[in-house]
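Technical note accompanying the year-one report. For the benefit of new consortium partners, we illustrate the data format agreed upon in the data management plan: each record pairs a sequence with a structure-token string. No post-processing was applied to the example shown here.
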Amino acid sequence: MERSEWIAISDCCTHYNIEISFVDSLQDYGLIEITRIQESQYIHEDRLPALERFIRLHYDLNINLEGIDVITQLVQQVEQLQHEIALLRSQFPR
């Protein structure tokens, strides 16, 4: 594991001005994955866009964690359907 790929949760919370409990709650809902390295918690840099999206949904739009979970599932379903449509269009051109 390269440390450059992992960002400390404490640094994220300071940067985004959020509580660590919010990030812990996101992990409890299965929305993000936190990795423990020695005594600290880290998030992979690839998951930062998702974390930023969750922060905006919660703090800017006042959407609770249950709502964020539902929104995330719906977006994933839409993306899957779009992928299937693209696959079908490539197999059966007009």
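Partners are asked to follow this layout when depositing records. The first strand starts at residue 6 and ends at 8.
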